[in-house]
Automatic annotation (TrEMBL):
Family from the record: Belongs to the short-chain dehydrogenases/reductases (SDR) family.
UniProt name for this protein: 3-oxoacyl-[acyl-carrier protein] reductase
PROSITE patterns: ADH_SHORT (PS00061)
GO molecular function, one term: oxidoreductase activity, acting on the CH-OH group of donors, NAD or NADP as acceptor
Taxonomy, superkingdom: Bacteria
Organism listed in the record: Geodermatophilus nigrescens
SMART domains: PKS_KR
Span of domain Ketoreductase: 211-393
InterPro entries: KR_dom, NAD(P)-bd_dom_sf, Sc_DH/Rdtase_CS, SDR_fam
């Protein structure tokens, strides 16, 4: 599946036509391909005030093969990214330094460029003025993301003191093609025991090598894309879906060299059956992706109990039950495990006719945040991904007008692809994301709806 308008607007005939008609021309996004560099050009790295992360950022980028330029660089080569260490911002007056660094560098930014700001969390501020300045950066980044063009993105990472070791993985994700449809987002990292270069963490191309990953709802759409990307990154995939989808499920499992496991996740014995399968067939599990979900849309006044209960059972209760069973089963959820739950933009912003669906997806976010401390105690993480408008077979069946509006009302002016969701999930599954826990990452192109 692809966004037909984006493809048309960037074709020979389409490009001329949309220009003549004054129509928007969404950019072809820079998406990840194995073997490609993190960035297609240099990165400008600077700080506002006495930042504490600039040396760390420079080292991370250079280790990844990125040429680092100072803010004063004014050569012929345009930067592919601008990285600002704003941990030195102590009050509103220092925000001008952020503007002074960003404005000229962003003006020279390449198409599909990246802007990344790192700052201290407002909650850790020592004064109201300091908290105000740190929170102000969020407004700056979200607004800048709406100003950028040509497929470029801007994001913000909050880094508390002591969490410097957790910075590398988020920085490389937000700068790379993996984050093509992640825009205007805010992530907070935490101190964690992050694997080092000499530890057992696969390699850059196969960071999940030797891992076992469960993906529910894997027979089609986003679930199949997740299975493909996680397998590409080295994991053995246990593809799970209902028996009625058995043929499609087997095809996906065979394609990725994984294992198909037919299971109705709402069945009373589903959790125990999954635990038993993982223990006996694979010796445990490293990655669990709760992707399975359904819709049964109706206005609330017309919503019957069957529609409500079915959505809650699949989208929320099954995630709770399966996760609890894995936590309770001795040795099945391996050390350093990663659980990623699929929420939705609807769970954040709401959506007409989807009170059941939005409630279930908001519940997923609450589940992730509540469980994060317990997972941290085990050296594991649990996070959520909230897709926006993603081009799938399901959205292709929507009325044309509704579909096109849904695909365009974001900063990137296009619908995302299943692979965009899959890349974010595969990143959260990596060992290097040990410092990302209890977070919600929206994969929505910075939708104009919701926060």
């Amino acid at each position: 599946m692809s966004d037909w308008y984006t493809s048309f607007a960037n074709s020979g005939v389409g490009s001329s036509l949309v220009q003549q008609l004054g129509l928007p021309r969404p950019a072809v996004l820079r998406r990840y391909e194995p073997g490609q560099p993190v960035l297609p050009g240099p990165a400008v790295v600077g700080s506002a005030g006495e930042g504490r992360l600039r040396e760390t950022l420079t080292a991370v980028l250079r280790d990844a093969g990125v040429v680092v330029l100072p803010p004063s660089a004014d050569g012929p080569e345009r930067p592919a990214a601008v990285v600002l260490d704003a941990t030195g911002v102590t009050g509103p007056a220092q925000l001008a330094a952020a503007r002074d660094l960003l404005a000229p560098a962003v003006r020279r930014l390449r198409p599909t460029g990246r802007v990344l700001v790192l700052a201290d969390p407002p909650a850790d501020a020592r004064s109201p003025a300091q908290a105000a300045a740190r929170q102000a950066l969020e407004g700056l980044v979200r607004s800048l993301a709406k100003e950028l063009r040509a497929g470029s993105t801007a994001n913000l990472v909050y880094v508390p003191e002591g969490a410097e070791a957790s910075v590398a993985s988020p920085v490389l994700f937000f700068l790379s093609g993996r984050s093509a449809y992640v825009d205007g987002q805010v992530l907070t990292v935490s101190p964690a025991d992050v694997p080092g270069a000499g530890d057992d963490e696969g390699d850059d191309e196969r960071p999940l090598a030797g891992k076992v990953a469960v993906v529910t709802g894997a027979a089609r759409g986003i679930g199949a894309a997740i299975a493909r990307v996680v397998a590409r990154d080295g994991a053995h995939v246990v593809a799970v879906d209902v028996p009625a989808a058995g043929e499609a499920l087997a095809a996906v499992a065979n394609e990725v060299g994984g294992t198909a496991f037919q299971l109705d996740i709402t069945a009373p014995d589903a959790a125990q059956r999954l635990v038993t399968h993982l223990r006996e067939r694979h010796g445990g599990v490293d990655v669990v992706v709760h992707n399975a979900g359904i819709t049964r849309d109706k206005l609330l006044v017309n919503m019957d109990a069957a529609r409500w209960d079915a959505v809650m059972a699949v989208n929320l209760q099954a995630q709770l039950d399966l996760t609890q069973a894995l936590l309770d089963a001795d040795g099945v959820l391996r050390p350093g495990a990663r659980v990623v739950a699929v929420s939705s933009q609807s769970g954040i912003a709401g959506n007409r006719g989807q009170t059941n669906y939005a409630a279930s997806k908001a519940g997923v976010i609450g589940m992730v945040r509540a469980w994060a401390p317990a997972f941290a105690e085990r050296g594991a993480t649990i996070n959520a991904v909230a897709p926006g408008f993603i081009v799938t077979e399901m959205t292709a069946r929507m009325p044309f007008g509704t579909r096109e509006v849904g695909a365009r009302i974001n900063s990137l002016q296009q619908g995302g692809l299943p692979v965009d969701v899959a890349e974010t999930i595969a990143w959260l599954a990596q060992p290097g994301t040990a410092g990302v826990n209890g977070q919600v990452v929206r994969v929505c192109g910075q939708s104009m709806l919701g926060a």
